[in-house]
Fold this sequence. Notes:
This protein has helices at residues 20-26, 37-53, 66-75, 91-102, 120-129, 153-163, 213-220, 231-235, 250-266, 268-290, 318-330, 362-378, 387-398; strands at residues 9-11, 58-63, 83-88, 106-111, 135-141, 143-144, 149-150, 168-172, 191-195, 206-211, 296-297, 309-313, 332-336, 351-355. By secondary structure, the protein is of the alpha/beta class. It has 2 domains: 9-16 and 267-397, Aspartate Aminotransferase, domain 1 (Alpha-Beta Complex), CATH 3.90.1150; 31-265, Type I PLP-dependent aspartate aminotransferase-like (Major domain) (Aspartate Aminotransferase, domain 2). A 7-stranded mixed beta sheet has the order 2-10-9-8-5-3-4, sandwiched between helices. A 5-stranded mixed beta sheet has the order 1-13-14-12-11. It has a two-stranded antiparallel ribbon with strand order 6-7. A hairpin with a 4-residue loop joins strand 6 (143-144) and strand 7. The chain starts with 8 loop residues before the first strand and ends in a 7-residue tail after the last helix. Bound molecules: pyridoxal-5'-phosphate. Residues 14, 65-67, 92, 141, 143, 145, 172, 174-175, 195, 204 line the site of pyridoxal-5'-phosphate.
Amino acid sequence: MPHIPGPAYRAIPGPSVMPEEVLRAMHRPAPNIYGGDLEVLTAGLIPDLRRVARTDGAATIYIGNGHAAWEAALANTIAPGEAVLVPCTGRFGHGWAEMAEALGAEPQILDFGKQAPVDMDRLDAALRADKTHRIKAVLATHVDTSTSVLNDIAAMRAVLDDTGHPALLMADCIASLACDRFEMDAWGVDVMVAASQKGLMVPPGLAFVFFNARAAEKRKHMPRVSRYWDWTPRADPELFYQYFCGTAPTHHLFGLRAALDMIHAEGMEAIWTRHETLAHAIWAAADAWQEGGALRLNLANPAHRSHAVTSLSLPAPKGTELRHWVEAELGVTLGIGLGMAEPGSYAADGFFRFGHMGHVNGHMIMGLLGAVEAGLTALDVPHGRGALEAAAAVLATGGGAPRSG
Ligand SMILES: *Cc1c(COP(=O)(O)O)cnc(C)c1O
């Protein structure tokens, strides 16, 4: 692939764009892991992670990716033979369910397809049907990164409360944390999982599991939990190495420190507003393109869409052609379609995604949209006019600039 001068924009839904501050913080020699600054730094990360998750509960860090966070959450709470209810709105719910099954649990899947959020009536019915309370947890995906569906986690808590069902509510916020509004305690979430490489702007390699007292109580009754996955010593370590059950992920911690400093300097509310404004700019452009009859947003209803990722399609194979064109010619990388069609099939070449999570601002989004506009034109894809004007109008009124403090 020819080199494109100037900074590239990887507009993929993770790993997201890494800020210079994070990269600089990581560029240093190996630190001493036996006492000293790293211990102080790590202890300081915990309350700042809790502030991102909006919880007074426990925060634990694992060396791992999102899949590790899934496994960690299940390993501490779900014993072999126990059932979990998994409302699926795209690929990622199925992934968490497969993880549960491999651990000996019995996943019960509620499939809502690829273009709709969780329907609370069906969730209600499934919980009421479980008269003996075999279901020990609801594994909810806050934002499904394949479909870009945003689910209403607070409404799921309300259903659990209405039905009097004692199952834990677990939320996968790997794509949504620090992008879409999420309030762990206020929404009654018992366990939340996240990872470093999306809204948190740190390279892949850290997994996070947050849990409250209800989840800790369930952990106490587990027949066994492997030493590595056990969250108990990680949440309350007597010795430094227990945070990580071994050597600390040193450089990721320096990067995370820098990222959390940036996040809290901007403020959670301002971060959510910025992502909201940028998402609206993208949707405004896509609405205009859709007039041409070829391009489609996966979700017709804006209320169902995440502010972190947008799933789109063109008639196959134009989606893949567009990705290749904007990357080779203009230095913008779009996300591949995921979970929308059989991988490798002709249909799969219709789907693509925009990642707009974390370290993104208005000029990057205008650059992304401008690149796509150029690509649609170059590839003779019929598309409506005025997309960039529509996006600019959103930014002109909505602002979207981070406010400090
Ligand atoms: C990215 C993602 C995952 C998987 O994370 P990995 O780091 O690839 O293991 C799981 N769930 C959601 C919602 C995600 O966006």
